[in-house]
Design a protein that fits this description.
Helix content is about 15%, strand content about 30%. It has about 250 residues and is an alpha+beta fold. It has two domains: about 40-130 and about 240-250, Thrombin, subunit H, CATH 2.40.10.10; about 130-235, Beta Barrel (Thrombin, subunit H), CATH 2.40.10.10. One of its GO terms (biological process) is proteolysis. Keywords: Disulfide bond, Hydrolase, Protease, Serine protease, Signal.
Length: about 250
């Protein structure tokens, strides 16, 4: 009976978008935030429904996880920006094309990064702004903020939320019992998953430190169980590819 009540409560949250906490929310120790605090985030939508997050690089380019693009068709994809809600407000723009990193591996999630080219240019004003890319990997022990529309059980939250996490070493990350081991790749960065790991619907969500994009949500235990660190794309390791790909888009070489 208790289990049924919890499931029902979660369903009500999904339908009505209230602030009532549901079991296994995307960021367990989260706080509601406003788009003015994270103006670089965008909602990726497939057939009108949010399924991943992205990061604004410039007026035509959105950075996201390759795993969010694999098997998708640009004609069915849109991007909403400049709104704290994924389903209303801001700017909703059709996706024209996208490019997945050539070294992306679905099996290992190595180089889990891609670039979206928008059909029309974004208009920048308060509440929407690109973010600069980190040139160096985030320092171990440093604190970063991850934001997104994390899962409320089986649907995306309508509210934008954030959580603070701590960067941990690859050595510590790979030594977690019964977990990643050799799965930790040079293109990845680890964060402390103690009840703050990212969850379903957060792939492609930004990890920001020092006002720079340091990482993006890639792979990790579902729904912030706290059993293992979360794996993020290390933006410093793919920065050159991002910049070169955007340039090729602008020159119509892709």
């Amino acid at each position: 009976m208790i289990h049924k009540v919890i499931v029902l409560l979660a369903t009500v949250v999904c339908v009505w978008g209230t602030s009532v906490p549901a079991l296994n929310e995307g960021f367990v120790e989260f706080f509601d935030t406003n788009i003015s605090s994270v103006p670089y985030i965008a909602s990726l939508q497939f057939d009108g429904k949010h399924y991943c997050s992205g990061v604004i690089f410039d007026k035509h380019a959105i950075i996201t996880a390759a795993s969010c693009l694999r098997g998708r068709k640009a004609s069915n994809m849109t991007v909403r920006s400049a709104s704290s809600s994924w389903n209303i407000g801001g700017q909703l723009i059709q996706v024209a094309n996208f490019k997945i990193h050539e070294r992306y591996s679905p099996a290992s999630n190595d180089y889990d990064v891609g670039i979206i080219r928008l059909a029309t240019a974004l208009k920048f004003y308060p509440g929407i702004d690109p973010i600069s890319l980190a040139r160096k990997s985030a320092a171990v022990g440093g604190v970063a903020m991850v934001s997104g529309w994390g899962s409320l059980r089986d649907c995306a939250s309508k509210s934008l939320r954030s959580s603070y996490v701590t960067i941990v070493s690859r050595k510590k990350c790979s030594s977690v019992k019964d977990h990643y081991g050799r799965a930790i790749k040079p293109s990845m960065i680890c964060v402390d998953g103690m009840s703050r790991d990212a969850c379903e619907y957060d792939a492609g969500a930004p990890l920001v430190t020092g006002h720079l994009l340091a990482g993006m949500v890639s792979l990790g235990d579902a729904c912030a169980t706290g059993k293992s660190p979360g794996l993020f794309v290390d933006i410093a390791k793919v920065r050159e590819w991002i910049e070169e790909t955007v340039e090729k888009f602008e020159e119509h070489l892709i």
